[in-house]
Every structure is written in structure tokens, then in C-alpha cells.
Amino acid sequence: GLEGGLDDGLDGDLGARSTSAGADNTAYVIYTSGSTGAPKGVEVTHRNVLSLFAAARELFDFDRTDVWTMFHSAAFDFSVWEMWGALLHGGRLVIVDREVARDPRRFLDLLERERVTVLGQTPSAFYPLAEATRGELALRYVVFGGEALDPARLASWQRRHPAARLVNMYGITETCVHVTFRELTPHDTGGEPASVIGGPLPGLGVHLLDRYLQPVPPGVTGEVYVSGDQLARGYLGRPSLTAARFVADPFTPGGRLYRSGDLARRTPDGDLVYLGRADQQVKVRGYRVEPGEIEAALLGLDGVANAAAAVREDQQGRRRLVAYVVARPGARIEVETARSHLSRLLPPYAVPAVFVPLEALPLTVNGKLDRDALTAVPLPT
């Protein structure tokens, strides 16, 4: 019958075809659109993932008693950290329904009910959660990644939950989730709104280079290049793009660097400060504008729970700076008061021309701020 035919046909072939995966074979492919919008498949190897968790073992004390959430989509590489972090340490993994992930109060109920101890979050997803947090949580670690973090927005939450360690980890899909580590102290969260990302994980190197691949001095902005065993194989079926982004390491014969397109500077203490994407700087009336600087100023307004800034073109084709503002419950944001406040902090060209009230900022499926969705929000006439 059919069973015998299958057995007979596969018996010899299986032995001939079976192979074991090596450390440098592809473990998974995750597609990322990046800044160009053109999807590209990143080939990540077994060695990359094991190197990530070998480094984590030196920085964290995860164990089998930990409860992790799989908050993020499997299409976002933060999920690799969540899933394998739990399983490799013998912990428990709680799969978070998408609707629960998008509702801070329902997600908070889950954290309390499941006694979650390790939480991975993008800053945009955590800020509303921090606003909703009320009682005690079992959290030991909150690990941030995926986008720039404003530590000052965590000060109140950190005071209420001193047992939870807050860790900022810069990372890139092409370098297997996380690249740097910085545990945030009360001094960090009580200081300037700079996204301090710390130093490289054990086994990785982070270089800040200029356009000639020369190191920049401390305090000077440079592009982030990464070296080490977490560098992916490259882009699936895209050899020219792979060659352009995974370049020869001028400091190590035969080595490779990943060119990230991210900007950072190094403090006198050796910490890295993330400054954003090189391709996200925008110009208004000839002036270069940093959206993050405007957003930090907006968040200093009384009654503002969340904010974003973007450049939009009006019907006449003029580029205008737009502020999207989420008010705290019961608060009302007066435009003239907001504009007066910002004019004391920002140069005139960086003060938004338009203010748009929103109930919440739109997020992507990966929990990041969805800047494309902001452009679809109608502007007041």
C-alpha cells in the first residue's frame, strides 16, 4: 500500500541527503525594509545566535525560574531574543496576543497575572505601559531595543519599581538583535534626554568612523560599524547589497564590518550615545532639523504623555514641521502655550508650525513608532 511505497522509496535517499547544520549555516531569514522601503532578507547563522546568548550570559543572570513574554512578531528580530532567551535558559515563555500587546492595560494585567520577570520592549511600546502601571510587578529586567530611548521618560517608573533593572540595548537585524549593553541608573533617567547605549557586548566591536573609514575622536559624530561573530552572512540573493553593507575591516586582516547607517558619538567615559539614522535628518527652509530634539522638547510640556515630530508638505508644496501630541488624561494642550514653551528651547526654524492632537501614537507591528502612518493623519486647516 501507500505506507510501504513511502518507506521503500525514502529508505536509501534519506541517508544520502541528510546533513547536519554547521555553525555557519543559516538559522533563519528575517526581512527588513530599512530606510529604503525595499525588503531585504537577512541571513542569520547559528553561530550568530549562540554568540548573542554567550555574551548575554556574561551580563545577565537569567535562569529557569524566569518568565519571558514573546511580545513581538516573529518577523521582528527582537522575537529571537525573547523566544530563545526563555528556551535556552529553561524558563517559561508567554505568547502575547496581538490585541493584548496593543492595549497597555490588558498587557499590564498579563504581566501581573503571569508574574513576568523578563520583558523586552521598544520605547514606543513601553511609554504608554509605564503610564498605565499601577501595582507591583515581578519584573527583574526590562530590556529596551529597536529605536532610540529617552531615559528621562523612565524616571518615575524606575522610582516606583526599583527592583527592575532597566537595560538599553542598541541593535540591528544584520548583527543578530543586540550589539550594545547599558544598564540605566537613576542618574541616567534623571539627566539629559540622550539615548545612552553603553558599550559593545563581549565578542563584538563597535567603531565610529568617518566617510573615509577613519575613527572619529570622542564627542564627534560618526557612523556605527560593527565587527564580531554576530555579523550575519549577508542579504539573501543580494550580493551587491551585501558587499556594500558588509565591508572589509581595515583594522583586522580578513575581518568584516557591518556598516549600519546609524550615527553615534562617544562620551569621555567611553559610552556610546545614539543619535539616530543618517538618512532621517530632514531640512526645513534650508535648516537641518533633528525630529528627536523636537520630540524631547515637546515631552517637557505639562500634560504631554507622548509626542512625535515630522515634516509634511501642504497643498502648496511647502514643507512644514508638524507636532503630533498625545495629552495625559484630563489635560488639554494649548497650542500657543506649547509654541511659547518650545520657542525658549529650540531655534525658530525648529518650532512646529502645526500641532495635531492624537489619542495615541501609531505603532508598527514591531512596536516602533509608525512614522509613515503619521503622514496619513489629516492636518488641521
Any idea of the CATH topology of the largest domain?
Answer: Rossmann fold
Distance between the termini: 74 Å
Question: Which CATH architecture of the largest domain?
Answer: 3-Layer(aba) Sandwich
Question: What general form does the structure show?
Answer: globular
Radius of gyration (CA) equals: 23 Å
The main β sheet shows up as: 10 strands, mixed
CATH superfamily of the largest domain: ANL, N-terminal domain
Tally of contiguous helical segments = 12
Give the CATH level 1 class of the largest domain. Answer: Alpha Beta
How many domains? The number is 2
Structural class: alpha+beta
User: How much helicity do the residues have?
Assistant: 25-40%
Tell how many strands the DSSP assignment holds.
Answer: 20
Summarize this, please?
The chain has helices at 2-17, 46-59, 78-88, 98-101, 104-114, 123-132, 155-160, 186-189, 239-245, 291-298, 335-343, 371-374, and strands spanning 26-32, 40-45, 67-70, 92-95, 118-121, 141-144, 165-168, 180-183, 195-200, 204-209, 222-228, 234-235, 246-248, 256-266, 272-277, 282-284, 287-289, 304-313, 319-327, 354-358.
How does this structure look, described?
This protein is of the alpha+beta class and 381 residues long. It folds into 2 domains: 26-277, Rossmann fold; 281-374, GMP Synthetase, Chain A, domain 3 (2-Layer Sandwich). The chain is 27% helix and 28% strand. The protein has 12 helices and 20 strands. It has helices at residues 2-17, 46-59, 78-88, 98-101, 104-114, 123-132, 155-160, 186-189, 239-245, 291-298, 335-343, 371-374; strands at 26-32, 40-45, 67-70, 92-95, 118-121, 141-144, 165-168, 180-183, 195-200, 204-209, 222-228, 234-235, 246-248, 256-266, 272-277, 282-284, 287-289, 304-313, 319-327, 354-358. The strands form 5 sheets. Strands 5, 6, 7, 8, 9, 10, 11, 13, 14 and 15 form a 10-stranded mixed beta sheet that branches. Strand 18 (304-313) and strand 19 form a beta hairpin. Helix 5 crosses helix 6 (123-132). The chain is globular, with a radius of gyration of 23 Å.
